[in-house]
């Protein structure tokens, strides 16, 4: 493979506006990868770029990248972009059956992962791409659906597990620039990426922010532990970190002060409990704390609150829209809450996938599905969701996706997920399955059938099987 790739011409810079090979190389040189032992030999970016180009994919072909956090993921992501492909980052634990379905629905033409069995994807060949492997995905392939300079991003919500947001990479860079200005990222900062890079927050608000500002990266990855977090900040001189509300709560509950070198903390989510906001401020006296709201459809960041500069009564807010972003509340009720509409030139181009709900109600205008109220000064306060997704162990989970997966199992006529809260305060999901063939559909069979289709956070805690006949008798 490498003998072939050495003859590949350099990437055409017109394919990916805003992304230059030299800038990517500089970013990778500024990246400390904690997922690999120091001193490991790693292929250079040009070697990976040549290997991706040697796959011979047509311009605009989506490429699924199923890799754990690390410098290698960034290499592959930007190599696909610079080769004219359309990257789609997914969890490395995504089952092969789900990747096959993604390829068919989204026209993905290749998969890059750490180790791949070609037989699982009806592929006859396996290629080396840097230290990783790649296989063609014959169930997908280019059909003129996408163009070079575009990116696909998975998202949770009512559109289901096989839908994705299509973005232009130049608009993602624009969003990263606005986010960097809102949270004060500087060229001398060192940003810690501990969130999965297949999240839009991590790849745009952190990796692309570092690309455009000149900041450095320290890449770790799940699972998160408070002790490892503190050690990483101290050992590697981290000055800026991004957290989820769940992680923020863990740090506040432990109550240990954060290292003094950590200048800035950003919490990305729909709402952070004001008690935890106060707790984070106490843990990092003199530091900066930003609460941010966004969604993949908007590109992704929408609003930011500089909590360290605001009075306590605003700590329940996600702040004001970023420059260039307009937010309005549609059809507010008696309490002032209504669906948030976001107008931005960083919005997705469209949603793709089977029966994907289109969030665009006009070009650049996103119906978020989130309920907000706005005070007289324009500050936004999250109050709930319109769509049927919940957060389970820090992961956003689509109830529609669970229903969709369960209803593909033989003998399942209908599936009803039900959410309940455990003693630890975390959400759990039970699944009621209405079986047209009760002899075939058992609790064990449903659990086994869902295992290759669902991520761990999506799998139901309990399954109850109800015969369809019994259901009909009670109607």
From TrEMBL:
Q: Which PANTHER family match?
A: LONG-CHAIN-FATTY-ACID--COA LIGASE (PTHR43767), NONRIBOSOMAL PEPTIDE SYNTHASE PES1 (EUROFUNG)-RELATED (PTHR43767:SF1)
The positions making up the signal sequence are none
Q: Which organism is it from?
A: Nocardiopsis sediminis
Any one Pfam family here would be AMP-binding
Residue spans crossing the bilayer: none
State what protein this is by name: Class I adenylate-forming enzyme family protein
Residues in AMP-dependent synthetase/ligase domain copies: 54-345
Please give the CDD domains that the UniProt record associates with this protein.
Answer: AFD_class_I (cd04433)
């Amino acid at each position: 493979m490498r003998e072939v790739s050495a003859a590949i011409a350099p990437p055409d810079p017109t394919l990916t506006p805003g992304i230059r090979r030299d800038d990517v190389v500089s970013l990778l040189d500024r990246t400390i990868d904690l997922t690999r032992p120091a001193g490991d030999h790693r292929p250079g970016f040009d070697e990976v770029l040549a290997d991706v180009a040697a796959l011979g994919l047509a311009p605009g072909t989506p490429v699924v990248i199923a890799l754990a956090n690390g410098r290698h993921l960034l290499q592959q992501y930007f190599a696909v972009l610079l080769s004219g492909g359309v990257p789609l980052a997914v969890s490395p634990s995504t089952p092969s059956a789900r990747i096959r379905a993604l390829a068919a629905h989204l026209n993905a033409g290749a998969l890059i992962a750490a180790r791949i069995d070609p037989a699982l994807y009806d592929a006859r060949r396996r290629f080396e791409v840097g230290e990783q492997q790649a296989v063609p995905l014959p169930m997908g392939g280019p059909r003129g659906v996408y163009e070079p300079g575009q990116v696909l991003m998975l998202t949770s919500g009512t559109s289901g597990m096989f839908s994705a947001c299509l973005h232009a990479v130049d608009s993602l860079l624009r969003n990263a620039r606005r986010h960097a200005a809102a949270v004060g990222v500087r060229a001398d900062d060192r940003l810690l990426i501990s969130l999965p890079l297949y999240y839009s927050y991590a790849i745009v608000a952190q990796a692309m922010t570092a690309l455009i500002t000149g900041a450095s990266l320290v890449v770790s990855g799940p699972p998160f532990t408070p002790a490892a977090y503190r050690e990483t900040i101290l050992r590697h001189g981290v000055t800026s970190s991004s957290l989820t509300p769940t992680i923020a709560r863990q740090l506040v509950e432990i109550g240990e002060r954060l290292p003094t070198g950590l200048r800035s903390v950003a919490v990305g989510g729909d709402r952070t409990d004001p008690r935890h906001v106060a707790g984070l401020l106490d843990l990092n006296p003199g530091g900066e704390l930003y609460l941010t709201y966004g969604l993949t459809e908007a590109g992704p960041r929408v609003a930011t609150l500089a909590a360290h500069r605001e009075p306590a009564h605003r700590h329940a807010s996600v702040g004001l829209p970023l420059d260039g972003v307009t937010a309005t509340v549609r059809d507010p009720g008696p309490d002032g809450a209504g669906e948030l509409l976001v107008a931005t030139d960083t919005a997705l181009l469209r949603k793709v996938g089977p029966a994907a709900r289109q969030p665009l109600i006009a070009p650049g205008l996103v119906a978020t599905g989130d309920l907000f109220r706005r005070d007289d000064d324009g500050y936004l306060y999250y109050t709930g969701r319109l769509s049927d997704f919940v957060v389970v162990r820090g992961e956003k989970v689509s109830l529609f996706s669970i229903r969709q997966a369960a209803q593909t199992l033989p003998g399942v006529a209908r599936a009803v997920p039900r959410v309940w809260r455990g003693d630890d305060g975390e959400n759990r999901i039970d699944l009621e399955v209405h079986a047209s063939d009760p002899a075939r559909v058992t609790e064990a069979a449903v659990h086994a059938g869902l295992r290759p289709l669902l991520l761990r956070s999506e799998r139901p805690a309990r399954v109850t099987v109800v015969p369809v006949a019994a259901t009909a008798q009670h109607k």
